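thread: overnight batch results

M.L. [08:02]
morning all. the overnight job finished for the chain we discussed friday. pasting input first so we're all looking at the same thing
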Amino acid sequence: MEERIKDYDLTEIQEGEDGKDLYPFQSEAIAKISEKLKELEDNHNILFQLPTGGGKTVIFSEIARRYILATGKKVLILTHRIELCKQTSGMLTDFGVKNKIINSKVKEVSDDNDYMCFVAMVETLNNRLQDEKVTVENIGLVIVDEAHYNSFRKLFKYFENVNILGVTATPLSSSIKLPMNENYQELVIGESIKSLVDQGFLAKATTYSYNVRLDSLKIGINGDYTVKSSEQLYGNFMMQEKLLRAYEEKSYGKKTLIFNNGIATSYGVYDSFKAAGYDIRHLDHHVGESERRDILNWFKNTPDAILTSVGILTTGFDEPTVETIILNRATRSLSLYHQMIGRGSRVLKNKKDFTVIDLGNNLHRFGLWDSPVDWYHIFMSPHQYYDDLKSDEIIERQFVYEMPDELKKKFSKSKDITFDVKKEYKKAMSMGIHSKNVIKDSIEQHTRMCKENAEDMWDALDLAKLLKDDIQDRIKHYSYCTIKTTKNYLVWLEEDYTRRLNSAIRKSFVIEES
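M.L. [08:03]
and the structure it wrote out:
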């Protein structure tokens, strides 16, 4: 069958006639997309990938403008949040495209030729189409913003004979069970994060990762960690303390945006920071529109503001003055990982870089935010991508415990405070010594550390309590060596280690006194 070439060419319509001037990489993206639109059948769909901050709204607004001028047909733009509706409508207006928003206030839409472009919320449009309250004809192109969300799929049946252009920073579905290549036949890849950083269009990220044990987290049906298990982990005192310490070490005095995976966790963060004397606010989807507007205005105008949030600022939020992003959660979603970090990537005259603090082992799971990504492979083989993701156990095997600086000061009289369990295990095996001697040698070293830095036995026992994280790390690596990693075994081993350490400390002081 001979391939049909459409009789319009969007590249023939010049930039700047009615629209805005574009950056070279945006013009190149428009040319690629326009070529695909010209080549493809009307029932074939295109997915366009461009990093957060690259100007996807600018690009598809210009495409809408050109498409209307070239074809005389109408354009429908779909979004999943009201904020994105308003932003998109404003951008289209800037490009000279007269448009109408179909929101909850619009009960009916007739085929009114005064508007060649419509911007609609998914749920609202779906309800109006089901009730036959919308009679928009002559739609030639449907554009889907944040296309990786699956809520859009319910509308595709109404537009089977037109091209659909999906745009996203990450061509990976929000649900592992609903791959994007079922609805899109072509992928157009835009400029990479690294290229946009190198050209000065995005800020450069400096990432600090704090190792976190995630063995208590559960994976839900959507392929990501459940809110319930995340709340249990990140809501505990130790994790709240780790977050506060990370902020003070890497982001003190900077405008900071914190992402959490549960409302209770976020409130806990709010309470912890408030108790420490920091100016902080909490935001989630339950907050009313007026209060939310006030909070975001406060955040914008307060230089050292801290905002802790849950699932509400990953899309449709643009605050270039953010200096630090804290991932106070773990995720298996590459899309979410990029969206969260992307909130800090906007550049300003006096802002060329920003900080990322990772408290969910996300760096080890996905790599650096600006690392190269094979988007085509991910688009074509999403299940293979998920299968290849590192498990939490494999990630945690790579961790090497480093004692915090404040804790090191308490053991400053000891020459050596490290113990390489893997190295000592290999040495014991080569000498035919039982593996339990590795634990014995570790306890002896911890005993010396506590005794050398204490004034009396009680002081030494208090120091031993501070070694909890170090003990857990040594036991974990010992369990990897012995291939015994059940949770009950690890709990028993830690309790036994602590009991033996306390006993050894007491004996060392009794012997000294006698």
